[in-house]
């Protein structure tokens, strides 16, 4: 008798199943608009030129020491990563109350932050503290906070399907009614999956309620630079909250904006009220990391650190990021134009109003099924598409497919 | 018998902050309290003495006192960085397939029945600790599900102290010790070990070092393993085997994994955590692997899907760089030969240091028997010194051992050998 006899099969994660199905499909015109990774106009993954350059520098550097990294990670990476989020001239950094923990990607950053909050946040009420995630959100948010021990995970209103935009009233209402000290996971920019971000004014309103209700701010920042092409613009919300006096966490991922998907480069930025609290917090996080992966991998962090810390390489990187962002913006523009030209019913403004990798097309599940089964265009059941999957070669076919789905399927 | 824990923290710097400063208003908290080992490390770093000798590190150190990557590793890294077919894409949560296949083979042997019957799960993890953590989580959630199993887990005394924390982080609080190292014998005391395991409740998990026991360096012999596997079967215990420095004892990946193969061939379900950091000099690259040998292949998909789920909320997927190097070497006979040569050098140097140290102590007339130095193998060694003697060494001679009296053999070299030997001699002969 096996001791694992009664283990049930866990359900597969939708987005990876989608890619698996896509791979098995032999249709010549098939298009994958599922998984969130950048693709060139030739539908290929892209190694950023600056990354290639820095990789060679590292591999040829014979002075590199080959020890384990410290538990909290490569120091020059941590400081550069936090700086990129908060800005060079951030007063919080100058006041020594900002720290970073190098993590295994954005997921690792979320997990360490969640583990810390579960142990140390909100006095004796820790486990019962509600964690709010947007409706909808990246599905792994739920998994991470659940596995960190939180029992009460709730949605906050976010996407308004009828108007295809932000449900600000609902959002503010949920903030207002959340128990004090609840934890809120906010997308810093390029909301996944809707691509819809609050405007600056809307962020200010959100901040006002959060401050009054003493809610905890946990930013997920996976697309800095990638969304608008500008690092500063994509970090505006984070920087505003910091300047407004909030203590907060930022889970940063460099997977997309450096194209380092499989090197797992992330940073958990901690902004504390003062440097002593920061030190205590980092010391506890170190204990948490010690029982998780102990010492993070160095390769990706070295690449990012070298790039961010060299003015020349930094400028080159910004150019590479803009290249990616610009291609996405172009595809958005073209898709909208083509749908309008086809006379596809409905308004398609949201395609260019939304930002980042993803777009919530507004297609319903039946229409999505049509797209996949009849047209071999793969997208999420929610109607989410990855704009990076669009190319000048397939955009006509995709626009045509959407047109058919909308006109033939209700 | 319990001993103070022995941690091989490399760079943990916990500061003994006063609790009290507010953090996230409304919380009560304390700064992480520093363990004896952490205080030791703190002292180490403050110590300005030129003659200080750190023997506490976890990595293999060269004669020059540095960690290094194998020449072959450097070469492969160059090759890989020039390879245009390598794509920056997300891996599966379970990691690089080529790597998990090789890692599984070197633990179980290519012709393993379990592999042939497709009842082995291999998960590429970001390092050894991550492999232990994943194993702990799997056990916590899925081991003997109907009995709502939640421990106990037995750890050797002493052991790497991060182990207890890892199981606790996974939600298993019932952690116990089994007798392992005996100071007087300067070896494993099998009788007492068997006694402790005999009284362990059925379904207990027992964490055993397949080789390169950390921190003592004392490994069970093949005969002792034969006895232990019979006990495991009889008492229905679950072995969680560790290979943290695979290949560093005999220079042979498979030989170090012999106990894993013994358990598997006895039909025992097991977990095994492996690391390839040491034998490839890939310390910073987090190259770990968790093996799970199941009784039936019908269970493979379910267990795999649950492991996948756990990984997704911990680190999502592992990092690929180091694993690519290992997979490349292990898949290529020519590379393997070259690799074997470099590892042999490391292993022989460790043996040589042990011999020379033993000889020095003999010449100095240091009391006690030091045979165990050369009977045991690998990176770590327990000197059998008590707490006071260890403190003497750090305070008066600036020679740093772990509080348990264990040390990293490779950190001894031509420049510090005499001083270290003298210091040990003084520690044992000075009346304190």
UniProtKB/TrEMBL annotation, chain A:
Keyword annotations = Amino-acid biosynthesis, Aminotransferase, Cytoplasm, Pyridoxal phosphate, Transferase
Cofactors: pyridoxal 5'-phosphate
**Domain Aminotransferase class I/classII large: residue ranges:** 30-402
Q: Where is the signal peptide?
A: none
Where would you find this protein in the cell?
A: Cytoplasm
What other facts are recorded? In eukaryotes there are cytoplasmic, mitochondrial and chloroplastic isozymes.
Q: What's this protein's name?
A: Aspartate aminotransferase
């Amino acid at each position: 008798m096996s001791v694992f006899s009664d283990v049930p099969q866990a359900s597969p994660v939708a987005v990876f199943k989608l890619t698996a199905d896509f791979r098995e499909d032999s249709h010549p015109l098939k298009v994958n608009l599922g998984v969130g990774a950048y693709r060139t106009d030739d539908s290929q993954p892209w190694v950023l030129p600056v990354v290639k350059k820095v990789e060679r520098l590292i591999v040829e550097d014979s002075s590199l020491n080959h020890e384990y990294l410290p538990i909290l990670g490569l120091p020059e990476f941590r400081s550069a990563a936090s700086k990129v989020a908060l800005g060079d001239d951030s007063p919080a950094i100058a006041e020594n109350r900002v720290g970073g923990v190098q993590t295994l990607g954005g997921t690792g950053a979320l997990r360490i932050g969640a583990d810390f909050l579960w142990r140390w946040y909100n006095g004796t009420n820790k486990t019962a503290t509600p964690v709010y995630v947007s409706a909808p959100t990246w599905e792994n948010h739920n998994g991470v906070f659940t596995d960190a021990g939180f029992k009460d995970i709730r949605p906050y209103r976010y996407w308004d399907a009828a108007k295809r935009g932000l449900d600000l009233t609902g959002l503010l209402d949920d903030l207002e009614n959340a128990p004090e000290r609840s934890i809120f996971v906010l997308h810093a920019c390029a909301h996944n999956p809707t691509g819809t971000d609050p405007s600056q004014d809307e962020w200010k309103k959100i901040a006002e309620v959060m401050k009054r209700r003493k809610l905890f701010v946990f930013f997920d920042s996976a697309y800095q630079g990638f969304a608008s092409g500008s690092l500063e613009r994509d970090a505006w919300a984070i920087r505003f909250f910091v300047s407004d006096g909030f203590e907060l966490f930022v889970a940063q991922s460099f997977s997309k904006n450096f194209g380092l998907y499989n090197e797992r480069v992330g940073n958990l930025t901690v902004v504390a009220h003062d440097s002593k609290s920061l030190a205590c917090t980092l010391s506890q996080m170190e204990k948490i990391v010690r029982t998780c992966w102990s010492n993070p991998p160095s390769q990706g962090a070295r690449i990012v650190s070298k790039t961010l810390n060299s003015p020349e390489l930094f400028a080159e990187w910004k150019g590479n990021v803009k290249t990616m962002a610009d291609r996405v913006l172009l595809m958005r523009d073209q898709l909208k134009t083509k749908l309008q030209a086809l006379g596809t019913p409905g308004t398609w403004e949201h395609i260019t109003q939304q930002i980042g990798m993803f777009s919530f097309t507004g297609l319903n599940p039946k229409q999505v099924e049509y797209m996949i089964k009849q047209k071999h265009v793969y997208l999420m059941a929610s109607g989410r598409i990855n704009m990076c999957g669009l190319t000048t070669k397939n955009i006509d076919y995709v626009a045509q497919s959407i047109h058919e789905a909308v006109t033939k399927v209700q | 018998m319990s001993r103070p824990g022995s941690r091989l923290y490399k760079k943990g710097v916990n500061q003994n902050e006063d609790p009290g400063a507010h953090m996230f208003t409304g919380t009560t908290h304390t700064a992480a309290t520093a363990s004896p080992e952490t205080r030791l490390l703190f002292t180490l770093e403050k110590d300005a003495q030129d003659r200080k000798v750190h023997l506490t590190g976890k990595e293999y150190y060269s004669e020059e006192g540095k960690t290094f990557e194998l020449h072959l590793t450097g070469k492969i890294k160059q090759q890989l960085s020039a390879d245009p077919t390598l794509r920056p894409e997300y891996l599966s949560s379970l990691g690089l397939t080529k790597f998990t296949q090789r890692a599984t083979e070197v633990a179980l042997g290519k012709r393993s029945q379990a592999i042939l019957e497709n009842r082995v799960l291999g998960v590429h993890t970001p390092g050894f600790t991550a492999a232990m953590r994943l194993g702990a989580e799997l056990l916590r959630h899925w081991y003997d599900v109907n009995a709502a199993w939640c421990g106990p887990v037995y750890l050797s005394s002493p052991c790497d102290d991060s182990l207890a924390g890892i199981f606790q982080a996974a939600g298993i609080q019932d952690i116990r010790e089994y007798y392992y190292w005996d100071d007087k014998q300067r070896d494993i005391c099998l009788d007492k070990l068997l006694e402790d395991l005999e009284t362990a409740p059925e379904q207990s998990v027992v964490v055993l070092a397949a080789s390169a026991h950390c921190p003592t360096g004392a490994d069970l012999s093949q005969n002792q393993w034969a006895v232990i596997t019979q006990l495991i079967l009889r008492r229905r215990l679950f072995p969680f085997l560790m290979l943290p420095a695979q290949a560093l004892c005999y220079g042979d990946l498979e030989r170090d994994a012999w106990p894993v193969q013994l358990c598997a061939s006895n039909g025992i379900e097991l977990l095994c955590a492996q690391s390839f950091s040491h034998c490839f000099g890939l310390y910073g690259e987090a190259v770990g692997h968790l093996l799970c040998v199941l009784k039936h292949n019908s269970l493979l998909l379910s267990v795999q899907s649950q492991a996948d789920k756990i990984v997704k909320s911990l680190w999502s997927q592992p990092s690929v760089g180091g694993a690519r190097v290992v997979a490349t070497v292990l898949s290529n006979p020519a590379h393997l030969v070259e690799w074997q040569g470099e590892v042999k050098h490391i292993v022989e140097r460790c043996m040589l240091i042990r011999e020379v140290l033993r000889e020095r102590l003999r010449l100095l007339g240091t009391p006690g028997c030091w045979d165990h130095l050369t009977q045991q193998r690998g990176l770590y060694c327990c000197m059998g010194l008590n707490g006071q003697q260890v403190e003497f060494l750090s305070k008066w001679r600036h020679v740093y051992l772990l509080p348990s009296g264990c040390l990293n053999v490779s950190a001894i070299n031509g420049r510090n050998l005499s001083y270290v030997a003298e210091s040990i001699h003084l520690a044992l002969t000075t009346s304190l």
